[in-house]
Inverse folding.
């Protein structure tokens, strides 16, 4: 009998704790697993011997349920890449030392691209050193939805639901005055526009926003943008524009770079103005009407009170599947969601070599963006729709959501 | 039998449509009321003869329910003050003409401070001109909670609940990394800090944010602020700070003015940087750790999916009471909420002369801010707590909330 270790890494999401819950419930009910440990702050907590015994802490279903409605990483997170073991085995020896100390036989690492790099390197090192009594499995998580192989990433559906719901509410808010106005909403995603695309779901029930959508996959041309805006403003007095934070120009530079360089002269150091603020300045100057920019900011990755039921469900299942796979002897893989049917939506979980995933980015297919580059296509909506379905009961106390604190 | 006219004005909120629903359901069930009209875009819609017949459109309870979960002003809004009738009766004659045309006997205007100014002037004009067959009543609404006489304002409770819930989620989000970090959350309120104060409710269930709270009622001293931040950072690695958008220095100038003036040199026109962005710049320079600023922006006034049940309930009742009062012959008053008991929380509705309300601002009492000026007191929490109680079922379709569109 061996113990299981689980850790979380990368940017927070609403669903990463559901995956943790899945790992724990699977390990808890398996006779081959002894204790369940969680590392604080991902791989950093392993390197510094900061392990928490979760076997007692997460023993009852009610606590697991509360964990599932807690946003962000209950175990803490880190942004850390391991050095290459070909160059130095220092970190790897330390990690293996901790694995031995706690008799770890199974390690599940929940995270995004950098975390899968860690799984890749660690599994590679174990293979090379003929360490075959530690099984290492990755469980995907990222609101950016940019991991390869998996149909979509746990955490994305809830972020998409937040973006869609908020967009439908912003549509109501922006429409109230008779005066011309433009609202720009900046959505997370530096390299992939999946989350920005999900703003289109805000229109499904007849709300009017967004009117224009710009993803970071297409070069952003200011002149083209101004043309689009003028055309829309000729049709209606108030428009809403959704943009990826990672908009780049034809040269591949972030559009915000020019603003930051200009601002640097005045402030002595760069002002971190986002894409929406940049476009706000341009529109105020070029169009001249009332312009407002909104950053959905961290709320899109932590608004657990409006989580997607299907996302939380899948995230929990994928955690359970990852633990199960490791306990059954699998290693060096990531759990992936396969869409097996579109109507009705069905999915399965399988496991893919981590080497095919780590350090790659899955961007939006060009054919899912309309020709004008200012909206998404029906295929995109069909893809997104199942991921935001369902609402979960959220436990409130004192009028405020309740969260679980593990430490 | 006379007809009733209702209109909405000022900034949107989550509860202003519940008040509209209250007005409509009261008028609908009163034998003395004929048709129910809504004016588009507040007083502007009356001046331009843009009235909608609501008698059919809002006849069934299900539609009224949907109206209550629709954020912003379903009838549209305006930001318009009537000129003084002593100087020109042009607008007033036009309004009375519309009242005659549609046989309006009762006019309920739902809004904030500017809207109560309109009620004040219009009722004054009618009195002066001996027009006694039109009764004019104001129904309060503002997320700023800064109207005089009323214990609190419809719309504020839902905004406060959004701020509290979001703060509790941001607390989870900001705590994940082991690195030092500061998060500044900017909350609406240029002249009154009520909504910023409600961020303190985010701590009620053990979440750690906010660590510091600065309301616009106290002069903001940068040196004192830096001292506070350094002291907190010595205790914990990650802190969250809540600030009113309307922070002012000792001279009474907005703290953002200096930033805007500096930025104006670079851009040729003012950059509308908020208080949080301003403080972000200062902290990055003075403290040097990771700093993030978050504006809750329009979401705090339109996130109806997380509305406060008690706010929506009271808002609907106050609409009904306002209509009832007008139909019974009352005029020139605003409906006010009276807190009649603290434990258990109970309230009543009465009517106050509009002259005592229009153009005054109710700020946070100094004794409800702590001595150091960086948090609120227990009295504030006691006041706020009943206003955010309860959650409402929200109707979703396609995974997105459903809203009612009246035009």
């Amino acid at each position: 009998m061996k113990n299981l270790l689980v850790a979380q890494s990368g940017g927070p999401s609403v669903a990463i704790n559901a995956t943790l819950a899945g790992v724990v419930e699977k390990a808890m009910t398996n006779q081959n697993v002894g204790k369940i440990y969680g590392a604080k702050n991902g791989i950093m907590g392993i390197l510094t011997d900061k392990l928490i015994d979760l076997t007692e802490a997460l023993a009852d279903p009610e606590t697991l349920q509360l964990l599932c409605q807690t946003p962000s990483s209950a175990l803490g997170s880190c942004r850390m890449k391991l050095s290459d073991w070909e160059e130095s085995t220092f970190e790897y020896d330390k990690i293996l030392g901790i694995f031995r100390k706690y008799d770890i036989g199974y390690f599940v690492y929940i995270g995004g691209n950098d975390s899968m790099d860690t799984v890749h390197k660690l599994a590679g090192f174990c293979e090379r050193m003929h360490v075959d009594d530690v099984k290492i499995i990755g469980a995907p998580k990222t609101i950016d939805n940019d991991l390869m192989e998996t149909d979509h990433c746990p955490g994305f559906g809830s972020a998409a639901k937040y973006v869609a719901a908020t967009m439908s509410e912003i549509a109501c808010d922006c429409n109230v005055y008779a005066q011309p106005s433009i609202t720009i909403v900046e959505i997370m995603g530096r390299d992939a526009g999946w989350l920005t695309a999900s703003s289109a779901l805000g229109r499904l029930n007849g709300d009017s926003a967004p009117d224009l959508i710009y993803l970071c996959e297409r070069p952003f041309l200011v002149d083209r943008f101004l043309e689009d805006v003028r055309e829309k403003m000729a049709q209606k007095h108030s428009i809403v524009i959704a943009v990826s934070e990672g908009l780049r120009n034809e040269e591949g530079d972030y559009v915000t770079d020019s603003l930051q360089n200009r601002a640097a002269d005045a402030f002595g150091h760069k002002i971190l103005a986002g894409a929406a603020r940049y476009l706000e300045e341009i529109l105020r100057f070029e169009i001249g009407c009332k312009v407002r920019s909104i950053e959905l900011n961290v709320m899109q990755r932590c608004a657990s009170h409006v989580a997607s039921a299907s996302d939380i469900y899948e995230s929990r299942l994928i955690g359970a599947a990852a633990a199960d796979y490791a306990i059954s002897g699998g290693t060096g893989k990531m759990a992936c969601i396969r869409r097996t049917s579109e109507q009705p939506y069905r999915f399965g979980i399988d496991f893919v070599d981590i080497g095919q995933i780590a350090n790659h980015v899955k961007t939006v297919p060009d054919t899912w963006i309309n020709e004008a580059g200012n909206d998404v296509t029906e295929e995109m909506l069909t893809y997104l729709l199942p991921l935001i379905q369902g609402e979960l009961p959220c436990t409130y106390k004192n009028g405020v959501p309740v969260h679980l604190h593990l430490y």
